Amino acid sequence: MFFVISVFSIISIAIFNFIFALLFCFNFLTSQFPSSRACIAAGVALTRALGKTPVVCVCHPLHGALTRGGDLGSGAGAETTSPRSGPRKFRPGFVGNRVIFAYVREAMLLTEEGASVGEIDAALRSFGFPIGPFEMSDLAGLDVGHRIRQANPEMTAAMSAHSPAGALEAGGTRGRARAAERLPRYSPLADRLVLGGRLGMKTGRGFYRYAPQEKRESGLFGWLATGAAAVGLLDASAIAASSKPVAQLDPTVDALAAQLGREFRPLRHAQAPGAPAFLALPALPKASDVGASAATARAQRADSIQLRLLLPMVNEAFHLLGEGIVASDRPGDIDTCLCLGFGFPAWRGGPLFWAEHCVPGGLPAVEASLARLAAAFPAGAADLVPAPLLKALVLRGLGIWDLQDRPWLVGELLRGASARL
Fold it and tell me: Could you tell me the pTM of the whole model?
């Protein structure tokens, strides 16, 4: 028996050394020849063979955007000029991060309107995402997003206004209302969790609580790991510690979100009588309710949550195309980035494909929905106002596939929109 275990241990060491050698060779080749498609394909195939998710990151410079000084703007407030759209403000982040930021921001704002963290994540998983926005944030680390927001001047002002000391500095409710009109919509939920030491999965607490779970590997690798642990080549406790912890709902987070909603929501929403409450969440049925009516109500609520999170993603994607951040000017590149790198369900085609082909009414319905949603958030709702490129497409009766085949139409459409203004 000991001989068999030793043989398995030797084989496992040989296998892992071979894998590490392959990874080293792949890293060297891609560093020397970063444009080699064969190297990228080999790395993707090897990653999939190991059971991991391959993500190929390609960062483009600002397409056609030069500062007045002649170099690329490095600061978030640097003013740039584009032959397509004229002077504009450079905004930090590339394609994926900007779209996902809009998605996560809307999720946190939705918790202040009564939706729970677990409910939102479940709705997006049912849409097709592998994990919800809060699970993703905990996995990445809440402190990472916190530092990114601190480095963004626009977000720094919003963070300061929504901090616990912001009420005193703003001069009470009226002062905060005036500040809310000047700042983008913002939820301080993640900031409050970071201040409380909840940094996500790595600290055992974030939007969820995490309990360790021992996970036994099955198959050949399970036998190899057991054999290596038996002969002292591998620490058995390290195997158990390396398993993924189990997420557990934390009522204190939902209670904090409800408190923030009572504090900040009246400053964001329209106060005029008869103001639109577009996409307000349907009432959640009671736990005791059963039957088809309760199931229908839960499904409608999940659909509303999905729409609230996906519409800002679509609008931000159109902003990216209009600002020239996407080097190819093709919407398919944004969809590919979101599907391969950020878990958007590939069978839905990406956010732009979904907006045109899966939303009833297509792009005109998306534009109308965004306009009505922006009207329900008059304070700092510039991110919800339909993007100029989206308006131009609807006005001309065109779709995203017209841009895919003829990317030069982006500049033509935006110049026409500027002329009409």
Answer: 0.72
Tens digits of residue pLDDT in 171-204: 455 455 555 556 778 889 999 999 999 999 989 9
Distance between CA atoms of residues 139 and 133, nearest Å: 10
The rounded distance, in Å, linking the Cα atoms of 197 and 109 is: 21
Whether 112 contacts 162, CB under 8 Å: no
Q: What DSSP character marks residue 350?
A: -
Q: Residue 10 and residue 377: Cα distance in Å, rounded?
A: 63
Distances (CA, A) of 16 to 9, 98, 238: 11, 37, 17
Q: Are 228 and 9 in contact (CB under 8 A)?
A: yes
User: Could you give the C-alpha distances from 257 to 89, 263, 295, in angstroms and in order?
Assistant: 32, 10, 26
Residue 248 has phi, psi (to 5 degrees) of -125, 140
Nearest alpha-carbon partner for 356 in 404, 323, 308: 404
81 touches 345 (CB < 8 A): no
Average pLDDT over residues 343-347: 93
Phi, psi of 210 (to 5 degrees): -125, 130
Buried/exposed 151-173: b ≥16 CB within 10 Å, e otherwise: ebebbeebbebbeeebeeebeee
DSSP summary character for residue 346: G
Q: Rounded to the nearest 5°, which phi and psi values hold at 344?
A: -65, 130
d(CA 234, CA 223): 12
pLDDT band at 156 (very low <50, low <70, confident <90, very high): confident
Over the stretch 99-147, which tens digit does the pLDDT of each residue have? 999 999 999 999 988 899 999 999 999 999 999 999 999 999 999 988 8
